Amino acid sequence: MTSLPNSITEFLTQPYELTQEQILFYQKFRYIKLKEVLNLETLLFFNEAITDQVNIMNQEDKALEERTTYGKAFLQLFNLWIENDIVKSLVFSKRIAKIASDLMEVDGVRLYHDQALFKEGGGGITPWHADQYYWPLETDKTVTAWIPLQATPLEMGPLEFSAGSHTIVEGRELEIGDESEELIQKKLRVTDFKHVIEPFDVGEISFHSGWVFHRAGANVTNQMRKVMTVIYMDKDMKLKNPENKNQIHDWNTWCPGASIGEIINSPINPVLYEY
């Protein structure tokens, strides 16, 4: 296996200093896009490493046209860090974890899980949804780092946000799919929340909270849109009583052995950064 170059190891420990304005922006809208979080060397290196691991783990054998809307949205692989030490070095990066901690204004963060989201050329939309519908977590102190592994123009289907929509309760009960796309879109259309649709530059990363509504367009290019994500939670996050079958699944899968009402401190939920 390729070893991690010293220059990248050092880069991933260097802090990315946020301004107070950026933190306030995130607190208000519950999303933010930050430029130059990763440099070109780091991005190219992990593009190759994560692509190789996705190719090893991917078991999708249906043609795009035979899949559901959710299946057409992306190839989705979880917890690559357990399978690959190189990928682990990105997932465990203190540089990115500190950003997550600073944005949420908490004393540290632990890992919920990682996932690769590779939207194939010709892949469909990612419907409107809120991630935390799936998570048996007691508070909203959660944030996902969405890390494109290449520049991502609008044609490739970058992540879109409804800024400030974490305040809406209606729609939180919907699984991602055709129904969530239709009903949440209808709800957002009659609100004043700004729908943010922008390309991502090389090295630009977005962060969004668990309850903010977001989606992605189709990939109308013939290239794979490669994205790695890391989901962080407050290091003191407690497990709540699951409210749906998906939260029961997540408890068993991503928080194994955790007890309701106690801090989620399983072997696969390590603290990635703390002050």
TrEMBL record:
SUPFAM superfamilies per UniProt: Clavaminate synthase-like
Pfam families cross-referenced by the UniProt entry: PhyH
Source species, domain of life: Bacteria
Cofactor(s) the record lists: Fe(2+)
PANTHER family: ECTOINE DIOXYGENASE (PTHR20883:SF48), PHYTANOYL-COA DIOXYGENASE DOMAIN CONTAINING 1 (PTHR20883)
Name of protein: Phytanoyl-CoA dioxygenase
Organismal lineage: Bacteria, Pseudomonadati, Bacteroidota, Flavobacteriia, Flavobacteriales
